[in-house]
């Protein structure tokens, strides 16, 4: 049955455009057109920047890490640079200087980093840049996984991603023991970056059909030696088996024990 508003066809009142209505209608249309144009220009600008940044990668690799005195010396997206500036991060620490150049190009990196050396940013920056390079959209789902030994460390990384990655618009979720599994279960499918502890992540992988890692771009293992000392070896192996082989892996560890070397052999190329 056709939709009717209760008026017969002939009596239907036509909308009248007087001079004033007409010009405000035109104004709305003009603004809409302008907005569309601006959006297209921004998209094009972003594409050009992406090309420019990637063109500089090869040049970057030829330089010694000592020449990177400021984060602006790295080819980074304006979104990350702005986030760093707003959080007053200007000069990279040694671990940041030594690893970022490699991790930016998509290579696997095994970094030896003592506590307090600044490794949080050394892992956050490449994660944000990898998703930016892949033009990751919030609806693409999980793009990066950061596994930490403790809730406190996971929380610290989560906060840094949110602070430095503010302009990227990726969604970030914390999946740690001690919080409600049901709450995490319902939200997990829409998250772009998950920061987690190994036990809770594996629980979701085993029990939650919404947990989908098929498109994962980057895996980060933070404080790998500590995770192994805490007895997470089996869980880490099971998690790695559930991830796509085609991905980037960043592994940070304060010590390079035999077990850490074995783990890095399993998860890096
Ligand atoms: N480039 C930087 N410029 C200034 N401060 C920085 C920089 N990088 C990190 N920091 C600060 O240094 C402190 C230690 O950094 P971070 O927590 O990343 O170290 P970490 O190696 O992860 O240590 P932990 O294992 O204790 O967490 C933090 O307060 C952080 O904000």
TrEMBL record:
RNA helicase. Residues 69-97 form the DEAD-box RNA helicase Q domain. This is ATP-dependent RNA helicase. It is an enzyme of class 3 (hydrolase). It catalyses: ATP + H2O = ADP + phosphate + H(+). A motif (Q motif) lies at residues 69-97. The Q motif is unique to and characteristic of the DEAD box family of RNA helicases and controls ATP binding and hydrolysis. Its EC number is 3.6.4.13. Residues 100-269 form the Helicase ATP-binding domain. The keyword RNA-binding applies. Pfam families: DEAD. It comes from Caenorhabditis japonica. Keywords: ATP-binding, Helicase, Hydrolase, Nucleotide-binding, RNA-binding. Residues 1-30 are annotated as: Disordered. One of its GO terms (molecular function) is hydrolase activity. PANTHER family: RNA HELICASE (PTHR24031). InterPro entries: DEAD/DEAH_box_helicase_dom, Helicase_ATP-bd, P-loop_NTPase, RNA-helicase_DEAD-box_CS, RNA_helicase_DEAD_Q_motif. The keyword Chloroplast does not apply. It comes from the Eukaryota. The lineage of its organism: Eukaryota, Metazoa, Ecdysozoa, Nematoda, Chromadorea. Belongs to the DEAD box helicase family.
């Amino acid at each position: 049955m056709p939709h009717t508003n209760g008026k017969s066809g002939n009596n239907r009142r036509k909308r009248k455009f007087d001079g004033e209505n007409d010009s405000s209608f035109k104004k709305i249309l003009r603004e809409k057109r302008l907005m569309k144009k601006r959006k297209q220009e921004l998209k094009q600008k972003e594409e050009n920047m992406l090309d420019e940044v990637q063109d500089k990668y090869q040049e970057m690799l030829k330089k010694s890490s000592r020449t990177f005195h400021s984060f602006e010396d790295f080819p980074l997206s304006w979104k990350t640079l702005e986030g760093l500036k707003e959080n007053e991060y200007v000069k990279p620490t040694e671990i940041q200087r030594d690893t970022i150049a490699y991790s930016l190009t998509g290579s696997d990196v095994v970094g030896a980093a003592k506590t307090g050396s600044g490794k949080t940013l050394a892992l956050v920056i490449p994660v944000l840049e990898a998703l930016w390079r892949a033009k990751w959209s919030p609806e693409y789902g999980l793009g990066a996984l950061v596994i930490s030994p403790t809730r406190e460390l996971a929380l610290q990384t989560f906060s840094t991603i949110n602070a430095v990655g503010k302009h990227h618009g990726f969604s970030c979720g914390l999946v740690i023991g001690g919080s409600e599994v049901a709450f995490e279960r319902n939200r997990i499918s829409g998250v772009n970056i998950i920061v987690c502890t190994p036990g809770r992540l594996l629980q979701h992988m085993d029990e939650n059909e919404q947990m989908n890692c098929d498109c994962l771009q980057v895996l980060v293992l933070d404080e790998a030696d500590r995770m192994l000392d805490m007895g997470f070896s089996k869980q880490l192996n099971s998690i790695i088996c559930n991830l796509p082989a085609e991905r980037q892996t960043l592994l940070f560890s304060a010590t390079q024990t035999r077990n850490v070397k074995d783990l890095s052999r399993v998860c890096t190329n």
